[in-house]
Amino acid sequence: MTAQPIERAAGLRQEHKRxxxxxxxxxxxxxxxxxxxxxxxxLAAAGIDTPFPIQAAVVPDAxxxxxxxxxxxxxxxxxxxxxxxxxxxxxxxxxxxxRPRGLVLVPTRELASxxxxxxxxxxxAVGLRVTTIFGGAPQRPQVTALHNRVDIIVACPGRLADLxxxxxxxxxxxxxxxxxxxxxxxxLGFLPTVRRLLGATPPxxxxxxxxxxxxxxxxxxxxxxxxxxxxxxxDPPGAPAPIVHHLLTVSPADRAAVVAILAGGDxxxxxxxxxxxxxxxxARQLTAAHIPAAELHGNLTQPTRERNLARFASGAVRVMxxxxxxxxxxxxxxxxxxxxxxxxxxxxxxxxxxxxxGRAGASGVVVTLQTPAQASDVRSLMRKARIVPLAATxxxxxxxxxxxxxxxxxxxxxxxxxxxxASESTAAASAATGRRAAAMSASYxxxxxx
Length: 450
Fold this sequence. Notes:
By secondary structure, the protein is an alpha/beta fold. 39% of the residues lie in helices and 14% in strands. The chain has two domains: 12-233, P-loop containing nucleotide triphosphate hydrolases (Rossmann fold), CATH 3.40.50; 243-449, P-loop containing nucleotide triphosphate hydrolases (Rossmann fold, 3-Layer(aba) Sandwich). The two termini are 42 Å apart.
């Protein structure tokens, strides 16, 4: 009923590679892809019955033990695409203390928590255990989990390297390694540490690299660590079709007022700034304008970041102001509007930011604000991203802003506390990420449909 652990003989994966199951009449199911029954049952219990295209493409090859090089845009389902074979390949094996058999490397704490919450019910179904390892959180629980023979770790490179240096963790038993958001790892300068960590895993182990974009920055990992990988590119490199892109030219003095009008509609809005200071300042400006806004950036403690994300996921606040940390770390359904209050530095960041809306085929709107001085750089960015936006000049009184923002939101209750001060929020806004945040998000969507 469960897949056997990876054999340790080099080249055995190719010998055991089985043919891809044929699609059933109405498209593939997880069972037709070869997913073991306990995992298919766990997916069904969560209401996940039909694989997304990237899952249908990747899972059979990954279950067969092939190395994988996969690309799917944010929201395409690539996380589940590697979680299923990771768990299936490790089921039935034995894990020693401090020597995990499964490794997932991710660039941010938020993404680590969310990958963990996708993995956890699958791992539980076959008797495996999962933990997260990242900085900004106490080390002792992570060390305890390792000593208690956790099977799979979802880790940020820096903290994992520290634990290895301290002798708490060894990667010599890792059978399956995954690098998620590989290009973002390169952007953040994590590649040397990632190379070191992958180099500590057995060369005959299975490796999978996934990202919304795959470019020359990850070639060093591909050529060094992947053995004749199966390549799967499900989505085109541009942003997905259901998203409408607007490019608004504004004066620097009008920027904050324009953002307030756009965020003042009855939408769930995610606003991006380039700096932590700008995110904090804008969140407080919006809250002062009776638009409660949470903030998400690197200057916040991990519990505060989790509380703010939970409030946004639950609908307690409709607006989140974030730095680029959220472009990869937020997985919240039902985001209607993405606003680039500051244009991103390069086109990949634009695509990842914009990918927060229009997830899984839903519609969405993206608005980029530029000053006249930024026009040349933004024009180049759009060209590289293969985006042709609807361009206009806007002022706070422009009718276009109201048409994008939609119906004005109801003002907050007089007793509501400012979301920008979420570090002091009550127990009703307790920490939640991943599965709980997703449940809150689903509840929010149901309320809106009524």
